[in-house]
Amino acid sequence: MRSVFVASGIAALAALAAACGPTGSEPASAPSSAPAAPPAPKLTDAEKTAILATLPAPYNTGDLTAGKQAFALCQSCHTIAEGGPNKTGPNLYGVFGRVAGAHEGFKYSDALKAAGFKWDAEKLDAWLANPKTFLPGNRMTFVGLKDEQKRRDLIAYIKVETGYKPGE
Protein backbone atom coordinates (compact mmCIF):
# COMPACT_ATOMS: atom_id res chain seq x y z
CA MET A 1 0.00 0.00 0.00
CA ARG A 2 2.81 2.38 0.95
CA SER A 3 4.55 1.87 -2.43
CA VAL A 4 1.32 2.85 -4.22
CA PHE A 5 1.28 6.20 -2.37
CA VAL A 6 4.97 6.79 -3.09
CA ALA A 7 4.53 5.96 -6.78
CA SER A 8 1.45 8.23 -6.95
CA GLY A 9 3.40 11.03 -5.29
CA ILE A 10 6.30 10.69 -7.72
CA ALA A 11 3.92 10.66 -10.69
CA ALA A 12 2.17 13.79 -9.38
CA LEU A 13 5.48 15.60 -8.91
CA ALA A 14 6.58 14.64 -12.43
CA ALA A 15 3.31 15.94 -13.87
CA LEU A 16 3.66 19.19 -11.92
CA ALA A 17 7.23 19.67 -13.11
CA ALA A 18 6.20 19.03 -16.71
CA ALA A 19 3.37 21.56 -16.38
CA CYS A 20 5.85 24.22 -15.30
CA GLY A 21 8.18 23.67 -18.25
CA PRO A 22 7.82 24.75 -21.91
CA THR A 23 4.61 23.59 -23.57
CA GLY A 24 6.08 23.08 -27.00
CA SER A 25 4.46 26.25 -28.33
CA GLU A 26 6.87 28.39 -26.29
CA PRO A 27 10.56 28.52 -27.10
CA ALA A 28 12.72 26.85 -24.53
CA SER A 29 15.20 29.23 -23.00
CA ALA A 30 18.64 28.79 -24.44
CA PRO A 31 21.32 27.78 -22.02
CA SER A 32 23.71 30.57 -21.19
CA SER A 33 26.89 30.14 -23.19
CA ALA A 34 28.80 32.78 -21.23
CA PRO A 35 30.54 31.33 -18.20
CA ALA A 36 30.00 33.10 -14.92
CA ALA A 37 32.83 35.42 -13.93
CA PRO A 38 35.08 33.78 -11.38
CA PRO A 39 35.19 35.40 -7.97
CA ALA A 40 38.11 37.71 -7.34
CA PRO A 41 41.00 35.77 -5.87
CA LYS A 42 41.60 36.25 -2.18
CA LEU A 43 44.78 38.02 -1.21
CA THR A 44 47.52 35.89 0.32
CA ASP A 45 49.06 36.88 3.63
CA ALA A 46 52.22 37.91 1.75
CA GLU A 47 50.17 40.17 -0.56
CA LYS A 48 48.39 41.72 2.41
CA THR A 49 51.74 42.38 4.10
CA ALA A 50 53.05 43.98 0.91
CA ILE A 51 50.00 46.27 0.70
CA LEU A 52 50.35 47.14 4.39
CA ALA A 53 53.94 48.27 3.73
CA THR A 54 52.68 50.76 1.08
CA LEU A 55 50.27 52.48 3.46
CA PRO A 56 51.18 55.94 4.72
CA ALA A 57 52.47 56.16 8.29
CA PRO A 58 51.21 55.36 10.86
CA TYR A 59 48.86 52.87 9.14
CA ASN A 60 51.78 50.92 7.68
CA THR A 61 52.50 49.75 11.23
CA GLY A 62 48.97 48.47 11.77
CA ASP A 63 48.32 44.94 12.96
CA LEU A 64 46.01 43.30 10.40
CA THR A 65 44.93 40.54 12.78
CA ALA A 66 43.94 43.10 15.41
CA GLY A 67 42.26 45.17 12.68
CA LYS A 68 40.21 42.18 11.59
CA GLN A 69 39.14 41.65 15.20
CA ALA A 70 38.18 45.33 15.49
CA PHE A 71 36.16 45.05 12.27
CA ALA A 72 33.89 42.65 14.15
CA LEU A 73 32.37 45.84 15.62
CA CYS A 74 31.57 47.02 12.08
CA GLN A 75 30.41 43.89 10.29
CA SER A 76 26.87 43.90 11.61
CA CYS A 77 26.32 47.07 9.55
CA HIS A 78 29.01 47.00 6.82
CA THR A 79 30.51 44.61 4.28
CA ILE A 80 33.96 45.05 2.74
CA ALA A 81 33.98 42.60 -0.18
CA GLU A 82 34.06 43.95 -3.71
CA GLY A 83 30.46 44.03 -4.94
CA GLY A 84 29.24 43.18 -1.44
CA PRO A 85 25.81 44.27 -0.32
CA ASN A 86 24.90 47.34 1.63
CA LYS A 87 23.50 46.62 5.04
CA THR A 88 22.44 49.20 7.62
CA GLY A 89 25.61 50.97 6.46
CA PRO A 90 27.12 51.03 2.97
CA ASN A 91 29.56 48.48 1.58
CA LEU A 92 33.05 49.84 2.27
CA TYR A 93 34.94 48.36 -0.69
CA GLY A 94 36.70 51.25 -2.42
CA VAL A 95 35.82 53.70 0.36
CA PHE A 96 39.21 55.46 0.31
CA GLY A 97 39.10 58.26 -2.23
CA ARG A 98 35.30 58.05 -2.50
CA VAL A 99 33.21 61.15 -1.84
CA ALA A 100 31.36 60.84 1.46
CA GLY A 101 27.70 59.99 0.99
CA ALA A 102 28.17 58.86 -2.61
CA HIS A 103 28.16 55.04 -2.61
CA GLU A 104 25.58 54.08 -5.21
CA GLY A 105 22.51 52.33 -3.89
CA PHE A 106 22.79 53.49 -0.29
CA LYS A 107 20.43 56.04 1.28
CA TYR A 108 22.61 58.43 3.25
CA SER A 109 21.70 61.03 5.83
CA ASP A 110 21.51 64.61 4.59
CA ALA A 111 24.63 65.36 6.67
CA LEU A 112 26.71 62.79 4.78
CA LYS A 113 25.29 63.76 1.38
CA ALA A 114 26.30 67.36 2.05
CA ALA A 115 29.69 66.56 3.66
CA GLY A 116 31.68 67.33 0.50
CA PHE A 117 34.89 65.50 1.35
CA LYS A 118 36.61 62.33 0.15
CA TRP A 119 37.34 59.56 2.61
CA ASP A 120 40.97 59.20 3.58
CA ALA A 121 42.61 57.57 6.58
CA GLU A 122 42.63 60.75 8.66
CA LYS A 123 38.94 61.45 8.12
CA LEU A 124 38.02 57.85 8.82
CA ASP A 125 40.16 57.97 11.98
CA ALA A 126 38.30 61.05 13.22
CA TRP A 127 34.97 59.48 12.22
CA LEU A 128 35.73 56.26 14.07
CA ALA A 129 36.83 58.16 17.18
CA ASN A 130 33.39 59.77 17.48
CA PRO A 131 31.00 59.75 14.50
CA LYS A 132 28.46 62.08 16.15
CA THR A 133 30.91 64.91 16.79
CA PHE A 134 32.85 64.40 13.55
CA LEU A 135 29.73 64.91 11.46
CA PRO A 136 26.65 65.98 13.41
CA GLY A 137 23.39 64.79 11.89
CA ASN A 138 24.66 61.45 10.56
CA ARG A 139 22.63 58.33 11.36
CA MET A 140 25.46 56.04 12.43
CA THR A 141 24.68 54.57 15.84
CA PHE A 142 28.26 53.49 16.59
CA VAL A 143 29.51 55.40 19.65
CA GLY A 144 33.12 55.43 18.54
CA LEU A 145 36.38 53.62 19.11
CA LYS A 146 38.41 55.56 21.64
CA ASP A 147 41.64 53.51 21.47
CA GLU A 148 43.97 55.13 18.91
CA GLN A 149 45.91 51.91 18.22
CA LYS A 150 42.70 49.95 17.60
CA ARG A 151 41.57 52.62 15.12
CA ARG A 152 44.97 52.48 13.39
CA ASP A 153 44.77 48.67 13.12
CA LEU A 154 41.17 48.84 11.89
CA ILE A 155 41.97 51.44 9.23
CA ALA A 156 44.99 49.43 8.05
CA TYR A 157 42.78 46.33 7.80
CA ILE A 158 40.05 48.18 5.90
CA LYS A 159 42.61 49.66 3.49
CA VAL A 160 44.15 46.26 2.77
CA GLU A 161 40.80 44.49 2.39
CA THR A 162 38.96 47.11 0.31
CA GLY A 163 41.09 47.63 -2.75
CA TYR A 164 43.18 50.55 -1.50
CA LYS A 165 45.61 51.93 -4.07
CA PRO A 166 48.58 54.06 -2.92
CA GLY A 167 47.77 57.73 -3.31
CA GLU A 168 44.14 57.36 -2.17
What does this structure look like?
With 168 residues, the chain is an all-alpha fold. The chain has a domain at 45-161: Orthogonal Bundle (Cytochrome Bc1 Complex, Chain D, domain 2). The chain is built from seven helices and no strands. The termini are far apart.
| Radius of gyration using CA atoms only | 24 Å
Low-confidence stretches: 1-32
Largest sheet: none
**CATH architectural name of the domain at 45-161:** Orthogonal Bundle
Helix content range: 40-55%
Strand element count: 0
- The number of helices is 7
Anisotropy-based shape = globular
Question: Topology, please?
Answer:
Elements: H1 2-20, H2 45-54, H3 64-71, H4 110-113, H5 121-129, H6 131-134, H7 148-161
Helix pairs in contact: 3-7, 5-7
Structure keywords:
mainly alpha; 168 residues; Cytochrome Bc1 Complex, Chain D, domain 2; disordered N terminus; 0% strand
Task: Kindly summarize this structure in a few lines.
This protein is an all-alpha fold and 168 residues long.
